[in-house]
Specification:
By secondary structure, the chain is mostly beta strands. It is built from no helices and eleven strands. Strands 2, 4, 5, 6, 9, 10 and 11 form a seven-stranded mixed sheet that branches. It has a four-stranded antiparallel sheet with strand order 1-3-8-7, with no helix packed on it. A hairpin with a 6-residue loop joins strand 9 and strand 10. It is globular and about 45 Å long. The termini are far apart.
Length: 118
C-alpha cells in the first residue's frame, strides 16, 4: 500500500533553513506528480509546491517563491523541500501528498511540524 513518511521538521529561528524529506513506497514513484502541502493552526491546508514525475516542472505558492525548493530523487523514492529564509508565517504542519491519476485516490503522510520562532 502507499506509504508516505515525512521527516526533517523542527524549531528554527526566523531566517533559518530546514530540509524536509518524504520517503515514499507502495507505488511507482517516478511516474507520479508529488506535492508538499502545509496547514497552520486554524487555517485550511494549502499547496506549497508541486513537482512533475521527472522533476522537470515545478510550481510554488506565491508565498514561498524564491525561498523554497522542491526536488526529488527517484532512485531513492524520496521527495524533498528545502526551505530557506524561513518566516514565522511558515509555521505549520507540512504534508507530503500524492494522487493516483487513475483512481483519484489521495494519499497523505502523517505530517511534520515546522515552527519558526525566536
Amino acid at each position: 500500500q502507499v506509504q508516505l513518511v515525512e521527516s526533517g521538521g523542527g524549531l528554527v529561528q526566523p531566517g533559518g533553513s530546514l530540509r524536509l524529506s518524504c520517503a515514499a513506497s507502495g507505488f511507482t514513484f517516478n511516474t507520479y506528480v508529488m506535492s508538499w502541502y502545509r496547514q497552520a493552526p486554524g487555517k485550511e491546508r494549502e499547496l506549497v509546491a508541486r513537482i512533475s514525475p521527472l522533476g522537470i516542472s515545478k510550481t510554488y505558492a506565491d508565498s514561498v517563491k524564491g525561498r523554497f525548493t522542491i526536488s526529488r530523487d527517484n532512485a531513492l523514492q524520496t521527495l524533498y523541500l528545502q526551505m530557506n529564509s524561513l518566516k514565522p508565517e511558515d509555521t505549520a504542519v507540512y504534508y507530503c501528498n500524492v494522487v493516483d491519476p487513475q483512481t483519484q485516490a489521495i494519499y497523505w503522510g502523517q505530517g511534520t511540524q515546522v515552527t519558526v520562532s525566536s
